[in-house]
Amino acid sequence: MYTFTATGHPNIRATHRNTFEFTKDSNLTENGDCIVAVNADFEIKKLKQFLTKEKIKITITANGMKETILAAPNPDFSDEHEMVIRITNFASKRTFAMRADKAAMQLDIKVVEQLKKNDKIKITIE
After folding, report:
1. Helices (H), the chain
2. What is the b/e burial string over 17-40, where b = at least 16 CB atoms within 10 angstroms of the residue's CB?
3. Half-sphere CA count of 100, side-chain side, radius 13 A
4. Among residues of the chain, what percentage have pLDDT more than 70?
5. pTM recorded for the entire structure
6. What order of strands is seen across the sheet that includes strand 35-37?
7. Measured between alpha carbons, how far is 96 from 80 in angstroms, rounded to an integer?
């Protein structure tokens, strides 16, 4: 298990139909419809331990609200700045996981409302 933190942002929309993303950027425009957290402090070295697994569980916790996503890790993930999780099979160096069971627009609206706050968010990978 590996846990990192990020923060929410008022411009989080979580309306993308194929992906969601954690970014190390601190700012977010309304065009970033897949981004669900900013200021992510993940370490790529620690994430790489999950890339050989068959399935991973990603849990987002925001102000006591939780959302869990299951996906298949992408062994070619190598981006130190962004983590993209996709419901499709598309893989790039930014793609941490594919074939996810949820994209941004399918996240629980109660969780999304918490993500719109500037509060700290916890992301756990297992």
Report:
1. 44-47, 109-115
2. eebbbbbebeebeeebbbbbbbbb
3. 29
4. 100
5. 0.96
6. 2-7, 120-125, 56-62, 65-73, 95-98, 82-86, 19-23, 35-37
7. 11
